[in-house]
User: Which sequence fits this backbone?
């Protein structure tokens, strides 16, 4: 079981796989597995997920086995205070993921 606090949070995950023969599928599958409450992506190597994992460290711990030593990843909690240059549909999807509206 992934998570168990009952608290649902959103995290932004972005990564750069540097190893020749990068295994994007393994990283993406790990992200999809932990995004048990939703996942959206408008970019090749970045995801906004909704999960029951407690913190960014737990999210990273779930992704780490799919990474090579020289890959780069950052995970941070995504809150309702955000801004970006997106189209209306993308903005609506983020709002829906964050607050269900």
Assistant:
């Amino acid at each position: 079981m992934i998570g168990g606090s009952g608290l649902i949070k959103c995290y932004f995950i972005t990564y750069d796989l540097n190893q020749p023969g990068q295994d994007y599928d393994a990283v993406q599958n790990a992200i999809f597995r932990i995004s048990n409450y939703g996942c959206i992506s408008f970019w090749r190597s970045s995801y906004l997920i909704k999960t029951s994992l407690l913190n960014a460290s737990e999210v990273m711990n779930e992704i780490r086995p799919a990474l090579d030593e020289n890959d780069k990843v950052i995970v941070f909690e995504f809150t309702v205070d955000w801004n970006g240059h997106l189209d209306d549909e993308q903005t609506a999807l983020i709002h829906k993921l964050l607050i269900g509206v």
In short: The beta strands are 9-16, 39-43, 46-51, 72-77. Residues 9-99 form a domain with the Alpha-Beta Plaits fold (CATH 3.30.70.240). The CA atoms of residues 18 and 26 lie 14 Å apart.
